[in-house]
Amino acid sequence: MSGRRAIIIGAGPAGLTAAYELLTRTAIRPVVLEKSEYMGGISRTHCYKGNRIDLGGHRFFSKSDRVMQWWLDRMPLESTASSRERIEYQGCSRYLDAAAQGPDPEREDRVMLLRRRRSRIYFLRKFFQYPIQFNLRTLRNMGAVRVARIGLSYLRWALFPPRKIDNLEEFLISRFGKELYLTFFKSYTEKVWGVPCREISAEWGAQRIKGLSIARTLVHFVKPIFGGSGGIAQKDVETSLIEQFLYPKHGPGQMWEEVAAQVRCLGGEIRTNMEAVRILVEGNRVVAVEAKGKDGSTEVFDADLAFSTMPIQELVRKLATSVPEPIRRISEGLVYRDFITVGLLLDKLKVTEPGASVNALIKDNWIYIQEPDVLVGRLQIFNNWSPYLVADRSKVWIGAEYFCNEGDDFWRKPDEEIIELAAFELDKIGIINKSDVTDATVLRMEKTYPAYFGSYGQFPVLSEYLDGFENLYLLGRNGMHRYNNQDHSMLTAMVAVDNIAAGRADKSNIWAVNAEQEYHETK
Questions:
Q1: Predicted confidence (pLDDT) per residue in 386-426, tens digit
Q2: What integer pLDDT is reported at residue 150 of this predicted model?
Q3: What is the pLDDT of residue 442?
Q4: pLDDT at 307
Q5: Residue 398: helix, strand or coil by DSSP?
Q6: Which of 221, 289, 440, 449 is the most buried (most CB within 10 A)?
Q7: How do the residues of the chain divide into helix, strand and coil, expressed in percent and rounded to 5?
Q8: What is the per-residue pLDDT for 479?
Q9: Which residues of 24-46 are buried (b: 16+ CB within 10 A; e: fewer)?
Q10: Whole-angstrom Cα distance, residue 144 to residue 134?
Q11: How many CB atoms lie within 10 A of CB 222?
Q12: Which helix (H) or strand (E) holds 92?
């Protein structure tokens, strides 16, 4: 393989992982083409006046030992708060001595923090644990009548499950019952996707929350009574139920900036502000990628191998060959959902932590806004992801997340209007007082979520056609049109390099990542 060159389109988790793996395991030299100036794709960190925004929230947790170790090899785990704390990882226990092991995040930047995970649902102007806990607080918040309806509805579907599940609505009802679906799933999910749940493929639910159900949730919360592991590996825990995770001191982008630096140090090349505009092919092989710089100049990069993490729809449009009309039609029918984060800097939140001191910050990472009378879908509290994301720790730095379509009325609103709306809605539902907002910014991220509707039902025909280009590898979330987590995107890159190093031509094991594994996230 000596002297061969791989062109990698996109410097997100999949693209940068592929570049690093090629450099450390083969003699192939990678050239990464990134159309922006940032590393990490949607896993990048945006800095606004010293305050950092994690676009979408990225917990560094995986049930893959390979990925967990890969992260810790790049950025070591912090010294623990107590002098000796047991960390269970990769099937063994070890103690970290705060005085002797692990960097101190107050003194060093290249460090992983160990964070507690807390997500809640905001509904009826009240907080509910996510996943739902069946306790006295839930009973009080929901009322006995609603709880009884949920219980009876769940029993009805548990005893008489549907024989066939065709869409996401049917999938969620089969897992949680119709009443709980209507209460806690429908509004938020339809905010995310912009279409009714019955129009979304059940495959999305099967991928993201395959192992989560009322029964599994009950087992999770009863298990500690009888003992069990509290280790960081949490291999027997559904991902939606994990209670701790790793997180880079300065957000996810810090990890990918570190990986990019290592790629360059090892001899790889990363070209920013270079957008791939044409994929040149001969027969069933990619032979070159033409890219355009910010100044409008173009450059052609010869390719022995090609890795694409760009949206498949864009890839097909840029193939310099006669694409069959049925393939092009499927590609053009793929749908993407886009994303806006409104960063709000506040003196304080209106909601407080029960039983804590006055104005104590609530401990949530995420808050899912289930209220149907506002457009905001989710709220991040960046202080709780990492205190180092906030320039002034006396302030509260939050991200209000909106789901939309690129080019729609909401997407085109001026930043000032979006900021005003976010502040108004969060005030309306009692999370903040508008008067406490001291600064704000708006970030737009296109093609954040590949959708499981549109022409997605015909997607296997499209993926089979693209896999027919023998030296082209599709990787990552948009590169595979699959709602991958960060670690799954990395694993697709790792498996692709495994295949290249082993001389394996079949790509089915790349598509199997996150299809057969017991790892799923978010409701």
A1: 999 999 999 999 999 999 999 999 999 999 999 999 999 99
A2: 86
A3: 98
A4: 98
A5: strand
A6: 289
A7: 35, 25, 40
A8: 97
A9: eebebbbbbbbbeebbbbbbbbb
A10: 12
A11: 9
A12: strand 92-97
Nearest one of 61, 43, 116, 39 to 381, comparing CA atoms: 116
Residue 447 Ramachandran class (φ > 0 left, ψ -120 to 50 alpha, else beta): left
Indicate the length of the chain as a whole number: 523
Task: Please give the CATH number for the structural domain made up of 5-43+254-332+453-511.
Answer: 3.50.50.60
Q: Are 40 and 252 in contact (CB under 8 A)?
A: yes
d(CA 253, CA 36): 13
**Using one digit for the tens of pLDDT, what is the confidence trace for 450-488?**
999 999 999 999 999 999 999 999 999 999 999 889 999
Task: Give the separation between CA 292 and CA 162, rounded to whole angstroms.
Answer: 52
Low-confidence stretches of the chain (pLDDT < 50) are 83-84, 87-99, 213, 217-241, 516-523
- The pLDDT value recorded for residue 317 is 98
The domain made up of 336-450 has a fold known as: Polyamine Oxidase; Chain A, domain 2 (3.90.660)
| Rounded CA separation 450/466 (Å) | 17
pTM passes above 0.90: no
Q: Domain coordinates of the chain in residue numbers? A: 5-43+254-332+453-511, 132-224, 336-450
**Which residues, at least 6 apart from 435, have a Cβ–Cβ distance to it below 8 Å?**
none
Find out whether 37 and 274 touch, Cβ atoms under 8 Å: no
Rounded Cα distance between 311 and 276, Å, is 12
**How many whole angstroms separate alpha carbon 519 and alpha carbon 488?**
9
